[in-house]
Amino acid sequence: SSLDLGNIQNKVIGYNEKIFEVASELGNQTPEKLVEIWCVDSWTDAKYEILSYYSHQEEKAETEFYSYSDSLSVHKEVNLTRVTNGQSVYLKSQYFDLKVDKNNLGSKSGTFLGDLNIYNSKDKGHKVLECRLGGYLDARIWPVPVVNYDHMSQLEWDPVQSLFYFISGTANLYAPNSQEYSIYRYSPLNQQRENLTPGSANTYGVSSFQLSKDKSSLFFMGKQGADVAIQLYTQSLVTPGAPLRLNSYLPNVSQSASRDITISPDGNTIFYMDGFQENAGDSEPWLRSVNMSTGAITQISHDLPLSGDYQVNKYDVLFSIGKVVYVAGNYAQELWLANIDGSNRRKIDLSSELGSKYILLPTSALKWKIFNERYLVLSLYNNNSVEPSSLLLVVDLVSEKPVFSKVIAGAAYTYSISGLSALGIVVQYPSAYRAYLNVKNLSLVNQAELMNYFSQSSDAAEKQAALEFASNFSDGLCDSQETLIKTITLNTGKQLVVNKKSDGQVSLYLKSISNLEGCKKLGVVDVAPEILSRILSSPLLVFDDQSVIPVFNAKSSADEKNILLKLDRKLFLIPTDNRPIIEIYSGISNNSIFYEIGFIGNSKVFFRGSLIDSSIQLFVWDIPYHN
Fold this sequence. Notes:
By secondary structure, the protein is mainly beta. It has three domains: 9-133, Lipocalin; 196-442, Methylamine Dehydrogenase, Chain H (7 Propeller), CATH 2.130.10; 474-622, no CATH class. The radius of gyration is 28 Å and the shape is globular. The chain starts with 11 loop residues before the first strand and ends in a 5-residue tail after the last strand.
């Protein structure tokens, strides 16, 4: 511990002004119990100390009293009354009551005063303690409301109306004895939560949803009432009423609709997949669309064999060119195109490009990316034990022909580069390296060649994007003695520069993209050397798209006073006005993971992730300004 306070700090992992957890002999595994409240009567010569634990899974509180007045005595209380709100935490049993209020600050930064009343012992009476708060009651970001305690499988944030939409529940969609998933709308400003799909009760719930562009309607895949199969529903968010089913009714579970929903720009056509044609067996979906004005359903994909697990596995709708591209088949897949109304279905012949070594598969081996609403980019992996390789294949969906193919040694992943008509390529193994696909001239190039090409572009925005991308590789940026790890473009248009200062420290700077010299140092954060080494060697360092969870992510508040940084399994709040950087959370297990992060106005931060167990939850915190 960096605190060295009190007599029982050996029972607490003390992160300075951060979260306190019960010390574990299990290494980096998550402890079963988390310390939520730690109080002492004196930080220098404690006569009384209190540890209070809370289990959110069991919803039980447990408290240990340590008295050192004559000799050490320990008194334990279980099944206490525990009440928390936005202002205070209150514990009560037959032995004592304790209230900690966030307005009553303690003598040290990050501490609060606690009012303790003991009823039945030689220590009977009232005492004022100094308390640090941990677990879900962090000392600086306090309190930490957990919006839901159940597994959260999807989250959408509406910054205009300051509303969250999310799926929450403990069910497996196909488990008959589980609690259901439902879609909730939650306001973090007034802390109101509304179940938008109450009909999900006892039906195993909702698997996915999308909001209409104007946020007036909700489209979701799930079960309502007596449904056996997953259906496509829409729910008005303006007019009260029950959800309306859009697909032809599916009476058998084998006909269940898949998770994928695509909404046309005008909101009048919904694309989806279900197995309406099935009579029994596994769910083998075909691609269809429904017209919201007429209710008419159109089959988009061609007729597939009704036996042998033939199905549509993936699709994209290209509204600008009026086409739908999809892959379908059993094991080996075929690439198909259809007009957006389902007419003129035709197969794209890739046999000469695939040869005998590469196969379109319905699994993750098929890495699919639509680029510029025109090109389909495929990365197909051949897991040969001697010479593993990937085929990078580009299909022009306007000319409907393959226009580029290249075999790359190793397992290749593609990612988008913001503002450039180019794709980055990361090869993970057998040796790690990077390359780039210039989509404008369909060439495979290195970084210098890519930057040289786009720096001469007549498009000012493209030239600026090239400058921004090049800054990711400028060693010595902001400090010639430091090694650049990553630049992150913020939503305000500025960049957060992350440099390696030493084996255990990272420096953070803020700069404008166009001014390479104008760096403002925000501070230094500690990162364990082994974590820093892993970050620097990770090929995922370069990823910024939503198909993977990036090692780095950062968002700025609209007033630019604070930056929220995700660095591996750590979260930092970085003030830009010389206040100290606050480490919001440091994951102690490999299960700790963060997805979306962001700001609610300028006063709150949020993130979706898993902290103390594998359950994914939404956390909303007030930004602290007291020292």
